[in-house]
Design goal:
Strands 3, 4, 5, 6, 7, 9, 13 and 16 form an eight-stranded parallel sheet that branches. A two-stranded antiparallel sheet has the order 1-2. About 17% of the residues have low confidence. The protein folds into two domains: 42 residues; 280 residues, TIM Barrel (Alpha-Beta Barrel). The chain contains nine helices and 18 strands. The chain has 354 residues and is α/β, with parallel strands linked by helices. Helices cover 34% and strands 17% of the residues. The radius of gyration is 26 Å and the shape is globular. α7 links the parallel β6 and β7.
């Protein structure tokens, strides 16, 4: 009797050990591994929330609250529907936000362009909406009445739809070197974006185009190369100088371009920012119709590179202008969510430290 009881106890113990090994072992993690996994989880979470953090006061002056000085601003032009269909989901994957330069007269025009519902969704999710004229006219070759229509008419068009758009982008980068055009732009917009340069220097003293400061006009009355109505950006094109680049070549060019800021940004101080402009995206259809069209997988590869290498992605409205010092600066605060087009008060300049 006692022997049977003993055998039953042994069977119970053995069954418990077997149950632990077979059923529970896969869920058990050694202490060291668990600690490492927890750290990785926290890192992934923080990286995916870069966009949200950018909107939540991580910036003070032109310095970040750490020594990371790798920054980029992403723009989209021309109201392509593919920006919403393809690019936005990739941006959302990493918490990145961008500035969308919309052509007011093209929104809702046809299936190739965004609808006003698309634009509202972009703004609601923390992206910036900016003006890109009424009809994408080349401003260097229009009449005075047409110029006012493209600039002032677009401003009113966006206001009618509920968008205060304080920033403007020149179609095809034409007009930023024309005094007449710039004077009209200044009547309706706080700042304007043009091209074409791989880096935007916040003090406007880039090595290729040195100038005293960021004033609109130089001492001799000529337009400065960089000023508040000529923020320098560069479009990302797959055909350059009549040569079509391969996808690997384009990716390497992207890596070189975004890292070209490193010699100018040190010890947490931001002096130069690459601002890259994208247009249409595709999986292959009509790829070569426009030099500015980019393949979706390549865009995804680019955004993954930014994420994996710790770049901070900002919107263009995080760039401010100090009229007293005639320099640009990175604003120290932005609305946490919602309407990023609301102006934010901040006072600082390039080279400031925490």
């Amino acid at each position: 009797m006692d022997r049977n009881i003993g055998l039953r106890k042994i069977r119970v113990v053995l069954f418990g050990i077997l149950f632990t090994l077979v059923v529970l072992a896969p869920f058990c993690v050694p202490l060291a591994e668990s600690k490492s996994s927890a750290g990785l989880g926290n890192n992934v979470t923080s990286q995916r929330n870069i966009g949200e953090a950018n909107s939540a006061n991580v910036l003070t002056g032109n310095n970040f609250n750490n020594t990371n000085t790798k920054v980029i601003m992403i723009n989209f032009d021309d109201s392509y529907k593919t920006q919403v269909l393809y690019a936005k989901s990739i941006l959302d994957q990493y918490g990145f936000k961008a500035t969308f330069f919309e052509v007011c007269g093209w929104v809702g025009k046809n299936g190739e362009r965004q609808t006003w519902q698309d634009v509202a969704g972009l703004l609601h999710d923390g992206n910036q909406i900016a003006s890109h004229t009424m009809t994408h006219a080349h401003l260097n070759s229009v009449s005075t009445s047409k110029l006012y229509y493209e600039l002032g008419g677009a401003k009113q068009c966006f206001a009618n739809h509920g968008y205060p758009v304080p920033m403007f982008g020149y179609p095809v980068n034409l007009g930023s070197g024309n005094k007449t055009v710039v004077n009209v732009v200044s009547k309706y917009y706080d700042m304007a974006r043009s091209g074409s340069a791989p880096l935007m220097f916040l003090d406007c003293k880039g090595p290729k185009h040195p100038q005293a400061d960021c004033s609109t006009f130089s001492a001799n009355g000529e337009l400065n190369y960089v000023n508040r109505y000529d923020i320098r950006t560069q479009s990302f094109d797959h055909i350059q100088h009549n040569v079509e680049l391969s996808q690997p070549q384009l990716f390497q060019q992207f890596v070189q371009r975004v890292n070209s800021q490193i010699p100018f940004n040190k010890n947490g101080v931001i002096n130069a920012i690459p601002i890259i402009t994208y247009h249409n995206l595709t999986y292959g259809n009509s790829y070569n119709l426009l030099a500015s069209t980019i393949m979706v997988p390549l865009f995804a590869q680019m955004m993954k590179y930014l994420h994996d290498n710790g770049f901070k992605v900002l919107t263009l409205d995080q760039l401010g202008y100090n009229a007293a010092k005639n320099v640009f600066y990175i604003k120290n605060a932005l609305p946490a969510s919602g309407n990023k087009n609301k102006p934010v008060q901040a006072t600082s300049g390039p080279g400031q430290s925490l």
